[in-house]
Design goal:
This protein is mostly helical. 67% of the residues lie in helices and 1% in strands. It starts with a helix and ends in a 10-residue tail after the last helix. Keywords: Activator, DNA-binding, Transcription, Transcription regulation.
Amino acid sequence: MQYSIGELSAAAGVTVRTLHHYDSTGLLSPGGRSPAGYRRYGDADLARLRQILFYRELGFPLEEIAAILHEPDTEVLDHLRARRRRLSEQIERLAHLVEMTDRAIDVQRTGVRLTAEERSEVFGEISFDLSYATESDLRRRDTEGHRTAMARAAAHTKDDWRVLMRESAAWRRDLIAAHDDGCPVDSEQAMDVAEEHRRHTARWFTPCPPAMHVRIADDFVRDPRAFALVVPPSQQRPGLAAYLRDAIRANADRADADPDTPSGSTP
């Protein structure tokens, strides 16, 4: 079958200008000419064009495509493997950029007025506020607790964040020690660690009665992003999120059983 340049353009979904360019570079020249001198393409040309478009979709430059089409299959495999490696590297880089963008969005959402350098200096691995109540989740953005947390986070100064993060680091050390030492979740040590997190949340962000604290703790297990706000991945270990959740539940039960215990008092 013979195709005019317009027919080939429509069949392959490319512009006539693209076909002119491929012809000028020698990548795809017409198999013949009409008596009037117009380009005429055959089925072999269409097949070659589809090969070109396949490699273009994979991101190969035209010069490399030209080389591929003139090399044996073993060389094509080498090109494809090399391209796969480059694509994998690009995927990793893009995933990192997406993560950075998400983190920047979350920072702006909190209203924290710090420069990028200050955020890195103050927050370290935990890029935003330590309390999950401040970051919250889109399901809660219209709740009073979320609005309070956002307003208070936005009002914190750099010095406030420094103090907050020091407190958080000390609390994490206590949590990890209780977990690694095998303290039962309903032991005084574990429940006191849970209570300190509840008080920290109330002190810096939003009132956090035990029932609300339990809901926050459930998110620590359900959503790794939530737990990463309180314990960065480099400090996590298997079972730590569930350990904290269970300690928080035990602390809430302690408050229900005895309102005079610390978890039942006002921070």
